[in-house]
Write a structure and sequence with these properties.
With about 350 residues, the chain is α+β, with helices and mostly antiparallel strands. It has a domain of about 240 residues. The protein contains six helices and 16 strands. The strands form four sheets. It has a five-stranded antiparallel sheet. Keywords: Signal. It holds the Pfam family DUF1996. This is DUF1996 domain-containing protein.
């Protein structure tokens, strides 16, 4: 009997042991199912993406070369100043004259000349100034760029000045002050390659020290609404009710490198036989200054602060924003289209 009982007991103990082992195994399995760390990603999961054989995509991965450090300041400025306005088609009723204009009324007068006598206040004969409101003996391109202007368009911050006209000893200022930028005086193929006047360019036209009406006299005097009087290098006798007017053409060929010169003229030239000479190969717009004074009658009553009528001269200091100048040259001068102060036909 003891042996039988012992055998039954052993079977029960063995069965109980198996049951406990099964429960433990189940617990281990459950723990492995719900609480294991995710397996590390396989190497194929971090491989490079599939390459698409597209030429533009290959080009996109190319690093552009660094900008050249040899570009000049002028080239950099020119690139930065490229016009942003889209070129409009030429209207069917456009006047085919290469021209844009600025109307720049009188602003002040001073015995100063920031081109010929820079920094010397009061050292010049009296000048009448137009356009930029700040011009004086100490003016430079930076000071002018920060000032205001009487011009239409307002973007023209340039300064224009001439000797003051005296009638019976009293200063008389012009009431008509138009500055034309023209493509005339050269062949059409030259007009097509006219370039913008460089920012900061200074030009003097005429001869303030002339002793006679000779070939250095670039100005002309005439009468508004009295063309029968004719033009002259000296003052003319305009009928009552008309106005005496002055025309002055500036040179339109630049040497391509200097914004000024020792005599304030050598860096510029007038065209020869419809083209710019090899010494001054860059064609630029011709500035024509037209001033109309409320005066008429005996020319003996007239005098300029620089002397007789044939000493009429003009000074120009270019402070047009580069993009504005470039757009007008492109749309008005090169295409031979007459534009108004807004630079549009």
């Amino acid at each position: 009997m003891p042996l039988v009982l012992s055998s039954r007991l052993r079977r029960r103990v063995w069965i109980a042991a198996l049951a406990v082992a099964g429960v433990a195994a189940s617990a281990v399995t459950a723990n492995a199912m719900f609480f294991h760390e995710p397996p590390a990603p396989k190497p194929t999961q971090v491989a490079a993406p599939t390459t698409v054989a597209t030429p533009t995509r290959a080009a996109d991965t190319t690093t552009p070369p660094p900008a050249s450090t040899s570009a000049t300041t002028a080239e950099t400025t020119k690139a930065a100043a490229a016009p942003t306005k889209a070129q409009e088609p030429i209207p069917p009723n456009a006047v085919r004259v290469a021209e844009f204009v600025a109307e720049c009324p009188f602003t002040h007068k001073l015995p100063d000349d920031p081109i010929v006598l820079p920094g010397l206040a009061g050292a010049s004969h009296m000048h009448s100034f137009f356009g930029n409101t700040s011009t004086n003996a100490h003016s430079d391109v930076n000071s002018l760029a920060k000032a205001g202007s009487t011009c239409s368009p307002k973007v023209d911050l340039s300064s224009y000045w001439v000797p003051t006209l005296l009638v019976d000893g009293q200063a008389v200022e012009p009431t008509g002050t138009t500055f034309y930028y023209l493509g005339e005086g050269v062949r059409d193929d030259v007009t097509a390659r006219i370039q913008p006047l460089p920012y900061g360019l200074r030009i003097v036209a005429g001869n303030a020290k002339a002793t006679a009406p000779d070939n250095t006299t670039m100005s002309r005097w005439s009468c508004l609404h009295a063309g029968h009087v004719g033009a002259s290098k000296d003052f003319v006798n305009c009928p009552a009710g008309t106005m005496i007017e002055s025309y002055l053409d500036f040179p339109q060929c630049w040497n391509g490198k200097d914004l000024d010169s020792a005599d304030h003229k050598s860096h510029m030239s007038y065209p020869v036989a419809g083209d710019c000479p090899s010494t001054h190969p860059v064609p630029v717009p011709k500035l024509r200054q037209v001033l109309r004074y409320p005066a008429s009658g005996d020319p003996a009553r007239f005098k300029l602060s620089s002397g007789p009528g044939f000493t009429m001269h003009g000074d120009f200091f270019n402070v047009w924003p580069e993009a504005e100048m470039a757009q007008r040259v492109r749309d008005c001068i090169n295409r031979i289209v007459k534009c108004g102060p807004d630079g549009r036909p």
